[in-house]
Amino acid sequence: MPKIRVLVANRPRLMRDLILATIADQPDIEVLGELEDDSKIAQAVADMKPDIVIIALDRADERPAICDYLLIHYPRVKVLAVAPEDAQSVFFWSDIRSAAVESSMEGILNVIRGTMPPLLRVM
């Protein structure tokens, strides 16, 4: 079975390190790389072709602008936006659908593996 390919583009550094620590040792997940600069996300997705991109969520009530671009240009890519301060995460996928996600190791791994609880599927 192919590994799930993940690109981590979350800031600040501590949040990126926590996410990497959560997923790096998972046998079914391949971390393609990490980005510190949001402006490089689109090019990295074009080059690396990840299944999931993990980005920063600055405001829980506002979808990050990069989501629209990625979901329109790369409809197979899924985006997990994690808020560093609020312990909130939002999962975005095709046609810009979204679901609230528990900001925990289990919540993040469930999104990456596509095993979200049915009640959290669509917001």
Write the layout of secondary structure elements.
Elements (H helix, E strand, L loop, with lengths): L3 E6 L3 H11 L5 E6 L6 H8 L3 E5 L8 H9 L4 E5 L5 E6 L3 E6 L2 H9 L10
Parallel strand pairs: 1-2, 1-3, 3-4
Antiparallel strand pairs: 4-5, 5-6
Question: How would you sum up this structure, described in words?
Answer:
The chain is built from 4 helices and 6 strands. It has 123 residues and is an alpha/beta fold. The protein has a single domain, classed as Rossmann fold (3-Layer(aba) Sandwich), CATH 3.40.50. Strands 2-1-3-4-5-6 form a 6-stranded mixed β-sheet, sandwiched between helices. The termini are far apart.
User: What oligomeric arrangement do these chains adopt?
Assistant: single chain
**Helical segment tally?**
4
Task: Give me the Rg, rounded.
Answer: 13 Å
Q: Give the name of the CATH superfamily.
A: Response regulator
The strand order across the widest sheet is 2-1-3-4-5-6
CATH topology: Rossmann fold
Share of helical residues:
25-40%
Our measurement of the CA-to-CA distance between the termini, rounded to an integer number of angstroms, reads: 30 Å
Arithmetic mean of pLDDT: 84
Q: How do the SSEs run, as a string of H and E?
A: EHEHEHEEEH
The parts where pLDDT drops under 50 for at least 5 residues are 118-123
State the secondary-structure class: alpha/beta
CATH architecture: 3-Layer(aba) Sandwich
CATH class: Alpha Beta
Proportion of residues in β-strands: 25-35%
- Structural domain count: 1
What is the overall silhouette? globular
